[in-house]
């Protein structure tokens, strides 16, 4: 049950059949228009803004923040700080895996790598570890990579992109362990965490992260039943946060191959642009990269694409304070919504008209 409550998942940019997309695409658009107090949306085409709503509103990202980790990984790989083919022990990754906290994302990733023969002697390539944070949203892999890459280096990429509204990136798995109540009541723990200043909050998380590397008792003592809905909401509200405008800025830089060098983009493409490994998508796309996330109450997505005709589209949409049923429906509509935006000029006009009527 708890898996469904705070399941964080990657919503990859997989392209599906275009037929029968109208209803799903319209449904998601209609939800954003009618719930703009819970929504933020920013869409641009060829550097011209098509629509923006609450684009400067700071909202929790979930693991969409892994785009930043992917960028730092690609930078260091490009400069040969490490080899993409380095063998990484599954045991080292499993130090950061806590059962029933990721909707089975990490074990599903391991099963996938096993099925294609990538796991040898209980180890896997470093490149595949990084792909796992995008394709399967393995939070254990993300935490491992944060330690490998250096927390300071990851934070510096926020400045590199020129982002003005972005809270610090921190280890999500370790943060969950802060919400274990031990011998005190859940209500008291809520009050204690609410009183914590940001610096104290981050310090506590990093302390847990350090301890996880040497002491398994931290994660073995995790009790899913203690993570009450009130604690989950508090955890959710203090996740790394940013705005749709900032993430479209990141998407535009990547889509236009700015700032970073060619080798960095070659590696980054292996992480963010796995959609392009499907041959049919190469018939109409030059690039398509995406990262999304969901928890019980949020749904976020950032996406960029360059079509074969040279058209460039970047967008991000963040939704917050969702019910579990709303989240489930919205996730089922996402691919059709994104595909219509990429392929259908009339649908893009419908978006403009829809928000104009709302005003």
Structure description:
With 359 residues, the chain is of the alpha+beta class. The protein folds into 2 domains: 13-60 and 253-358, no CATH class; 63-237, no CATH class. 50% of the residues lie in helices and 14% in strands. It has helices at residues 2-5, 22-34, 66-78, 90-94, 105-115, 126-135, 139-149, 151-160, 172-177, 186-195, 198-212, 217-220, 229-237, 244-255, 262-272, 324-343, 345-358, and strands at 39-45, 48-53, 59-60, 87-89, 123-125, 241-242, 285-294, 299-307, 312-319. Mean pLDDT is 91; it is low at 1-21.
Estimate the mean pLDDT confidence: 91
**Total domains, how many?**
2
Instruction: Indicate the multimeric state.
Output: single chain
Give the SSE string: HHEEEHEHHEHHHHHHHHEHHEEEHH
Radius of gyration (CA) equals 20 Å
Derived from helix and strand composition plus strand pairing, the structural class reads: alpha+beta
Helix content: 40-55%
Shape descriptor reads: globular
Count of runs of 4 or more consecutive helical residues: 17
Instruction: Say how many strands there are.
Output: 9
Through-space gap between termini:
40 Å
How are the strands of the largest sheet arranged?
2-1-9-8-7
């Amino acid at each position: 049950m708890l898996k469904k409550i705070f399941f964080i998942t990657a919503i990859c940019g997989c392209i599906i059949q275009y037929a029968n997309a109208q209803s799903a695409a319209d449904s998601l658009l209609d939800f954003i228009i009618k719930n703009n107090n819970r929504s933020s949306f920013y869409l641009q085409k060829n550097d011209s803004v098509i629509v923006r709503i609450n684009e400067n509103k700071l909202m929790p990202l979930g693991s969409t923040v892994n785009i930043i980790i992917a960028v730092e990984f690609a930078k260091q790989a490009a400069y040969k700080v490490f080899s993409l083919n380095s063998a990484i022990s599954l045991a080292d990754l499993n130090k950061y895996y806590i059962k029933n906290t990721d909707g089975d994302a990490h074990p599903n990733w391991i099963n996938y790598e096993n099925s294609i023969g990538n796991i040898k002697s209980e180890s896997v390539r470093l490149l595949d570890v990084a792909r796992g944070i995008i394709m399967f949203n393995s939070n254990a892999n993300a935490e491992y990579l944060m330690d490998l890459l250096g927390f300071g280096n990851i934070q510096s990429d926020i400045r590199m992109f020129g982002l003005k509204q972005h809270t610090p990136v921190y280890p999500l798995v370790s943060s969950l362990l802060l919400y274990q109540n031990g011998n005190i009541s859940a209500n008291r723990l809520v009050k204690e965490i609410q009183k914590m200043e940001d610096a104290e909050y981050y310090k506590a998380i990093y302390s847990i992260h350090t301890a996880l590397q040497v002491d398994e008792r931290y994660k073995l003592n995790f009790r899913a039943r203690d993570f009450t809905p009130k604690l989950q909401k508090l955890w959710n509200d203090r996740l790394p946060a940013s705005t749709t405008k900032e993430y479209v800025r990141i998407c535009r830089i990547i889509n236009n191959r700015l700032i970073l060098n060619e080798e960095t983009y070659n590696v980054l493409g292996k992480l963010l642009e796995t959609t392009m490994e499907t041959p049919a998508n190469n018939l109409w796309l030059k690039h398509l990269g995406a990262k999304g996330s969901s928890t019980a109450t949020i749904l976020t997505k950032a996406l960029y694409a360059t079509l074969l005709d040279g058209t460039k589209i970047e967008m991000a949409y963040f939704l917050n304070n969702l019910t579990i049923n709303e989240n489930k429906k919205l996730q089922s509509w996402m691919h059709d919504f994104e595909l219509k935006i990429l392929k259908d000029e009339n649908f893009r006009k419908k978006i403009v008209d829809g928000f104009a009527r709302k005003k």
